[in-house]
Amino acid sequence: MSLDFSVVIPTYNGAQRLPKLLESLRSQVQTQGLSWEVIVVDNNSQDKTADVVKSHQKSWRDDAALRYVPEIRQGAAFARQKGMETAKGDLVGFIDDDNYIAKDWVFQAFQFAKLYPQAGAFGGRIQVDFETPPPDNFNTIAGFFSARDRGDTPNQYQPELLSLPTAAAMIVRKSVWLDCFSKPSLFCGRVGKSMVGGEDWEPLIWMYKNGWEIWYNPEMHAYHQVPAWRLEKDYLCGLIHGACLSFFPLKMILAPPSQKGLLLARTTLGNSYRIFVHLLKYGYRIKTDLVAACELQIYYSRIASVFYYWRLKSQKS
Predict the structure, then answer these.
(1) What CA–CA distance (Å, rounded) separates 110 from 93?
(2) How far apart are the first and last CA of the chain?
(3) How many angstroms separate the CA atoms of 181 and 232, rounded?
(4) Domain locations along the chain
(5) pTM higher than 0.90 for the full model?
(6) What is the pLDDT of residues 54-94, one digit of tens each?
(7) Cβ(238)–Cβ(195) under 8 Å?
(8) CATH architecture entry for 3-231
(9) What sign does the CA torsion over 55, 58, 61, 67 have?
């Protein structure tokens, strides 16, 4: 039987993180008349993730099932795909296990989908809940922690500029996902020591390429919990490097054949110029200014994404 809405939570060793998210889902309001469910996709967890879900199932709300689904293929892309295939809802809301949501998140998502039928996917506001305060100028790189605030008015993202919502808290139409994203993913998500991202944006780019719009809904509020250790320089630079390796491959999906050479030149030469300017501006302060070091990493990693693209192409051939 088809439902109105499915919430899919991909998780790996999420026993400590899941309770806050599940409690925020159990506390959802204004869901009268809405048929919905919550699916936890366990991506080979080695902790007590399954026990946490079973415990919550015993006291779960009456109007929405809480389901537990395993996925043995490692990586967030596989977990999300399993969730999509398993979901009974016409709308699917992905939420990462280190997030929690406002009490009306499900309601606001469902309402927005009715008002904007041309939106194949959309995201909302995401505020970062830091365990310890970040540097004052951290807002320039906060997007790498899924921070999103595009104002108080609904507006469209620009996928051609890689301006997109994050799968940390995002809604997609199941039929659109399945129609537009049938091919194997270029990216599987962060696995082991690999921090390569891009698996959350690739389906959105294919939706956009097939004529669907990607939107921002300011009424959906979510919060991303970030522990103190994730603000350490080595982790931050690794996170940024992994995320930016997908930059050129994702851009190439949308680039017309006649523009691919120009995109290659802009990516390499443009970011080389940015490195030069950045080093002139900060000099030795790069070693002590965390945000400046992270910004420099962005430019280096975007150049590296060109070589990563050719590596992906050789692997696929």
Answers:
(1) 10
(2) 40
(3) 36
(4) 3-231, 248-316
(5) yes
(6) 999 999 999 999 999 999 999 999 999 999 999 999 999 99
(7) yes
(8) Alpha-Beta Complex (3.90)
(9) positive
